[in-house]
Amino acid sequence: MMKIPCPHCGVRDENEFQCGGTAHLARPALDASDREWGEYLYFRDNPKGSHRERWRHAYGCGRWFNVVRDTLTHEISAVYPITETPAR
Amino acid sequence: MSERYSALALARHALTGAPWRRAWRRADPRPHYDVVIVGGGGHGLATAYYLAKNHRVTRVAVLERAVIGSGNVGRNTTLVRSNYLLDGNTQFFEHSLRLWEGLSHELNFNVMLSQRGQVVLAHGPAQLDVLARKGNIMRLNGIDAELLDRGEVQRLLPYLDFSAQSRFPIHGGLLQRRAGTVRHDAVAWGYARAASALGVDIIENCEVTGFLRDGDRVTGVETTRGRIGADRTAISVAGHTSQVAALAGLRVPVESHLLQAFVTEPIKPFVDHVISFGAELFYISQSDKGGLVFGGHIDGFNNYTQRGQFPKVQTVAECAVALIPSISRLRLLRHWAGIQDMTPDGSPFIGRTPLRDLYLNGGWCYQGFKATPATGWCFAHTLAHGTEHPLIGHFSLERFLDGNGHDEYGHGNWTYRQ
What we know:
The complex is a heterodimer of chains A (88) and B (418).
Chain A: E1 3-6, E2 10-13, E3 18-22, H1 34-42, E4 50-56, E5 64-70, E6 76-81
Antiparallel strand pairs in A: 1-2, 3-4, 4-5, 5-6
Chain B: H1 7-16, E1 32-38, H2 42-55, E2 60-63, E3 79-80, H3 89-107, E4 118-122, H4 125-140, E5 146-149, H5 150-156, E6 172-176, E7 180-181, H6 184-197, E8 201-203, E9 208-214, E10 217-223, E11 226-235, H7 241-247, E12 255-264, E13 274-276, E14 283-286, E15 292-298, H8 310-323, E16 332-342, E17 349-352, E18 358-362, H9 372-385
Parallel strand pairs in B: 1-2, 1-11, 2-8, 4-13, 11-18
Antiparallel strand pairs in B: 3-7, 4-6, 5-6, 9-10, 10-11, 12-15, 12-16, 13-14, 14-15, 17-18
């Protein structure tokens, strides 16, 4: 069982949360080509290691936030607001 | 050459006490092959076998990072079936089931196919309508399917919850009698032995660390056991497709997720069929040893741990008891997890890549095991001819870029998140 630190409610069990997938995917401009749209919608880096992703405290405050989690160890190394986009 | 397995051979070994020979040769890498297959799982080994058998391409190497069969071919719930709805899937999985039906004889290795029948349950009239449509599509394609009403399901599976208190009342089901289970380890070993006998080199403990390039052409692989050249290179490493593809500079439409499976303590014969719950993703069968084998949904976030999380254990156990209340006191003996490629539309990709002479097979989501023979068959054809086999045309990687998603479940983008 992972313990996830919700920035609003504190540390809670994993099953109160829902993962929203990879964070910071940049939506291309409306005149993007099919290829650009396809890559935005479907293609992912899928790292084995540190992964920036969105989580929602679905059975708590209901708010979204960003997490940096290691996909091999589940270690959470950072939690930051949904509006922030840190430099890589 | 390996010896032929038969009742006579068994008697001879029993009487003389002579040891059995190794089932496949221990091969060392040669400098160059016609085809190098990265990944010694079920799909890679099956591809090697059909390359040698159907296309007479025998200078083939299968490179496996650990030992063959240590990945997803041994981490599933061993189910085989062909009850698919979408055109393309229906025919592909039926081809697979037909190959399963002859596989023990084909390989001279008992894969213990048990066609015990699978029942998919409907818990409401709308769901039963969908099953009726699916059954009709199957029958139009020459596949067996029988629609059952509530009474027929009750006669067949009297131990399900038919009480008035049932959380998900059973309205009916769809039965495919030819569906069933296979002994999954035997699939890896059987294909390996048969491929090796035809001249394929199976090279274990050989991890691919890079691809050799000549412009946009891939000419072989760098491995922990040296450089190996190849006319054609194939990637078949589901679970780690993103990592291996990235070595060639490719990005793929995959997230790696973890799927758990469970087995209870053994009990007397009880569940004679494979049963799929209709209210959640849950499926159950009974092993020859007596344990109830079942599985559910993925854990729900990118994951490479091969180690399950407790919340899903709880959900799956709840499904089991909602479906069959009488097993509530059974203890779970063990559970295990595999890492699977999840694609946006729930379907795999097999075929060519943007790089010349590099071929890719992955993205199998929940359905890699049952697809093993047909994937081997079609991927071998693709590697031998340089063009996709007609049965896998709709599984191209390009479909994600031109809007031709192949969405069996009809849920839209990233199916499993809906």
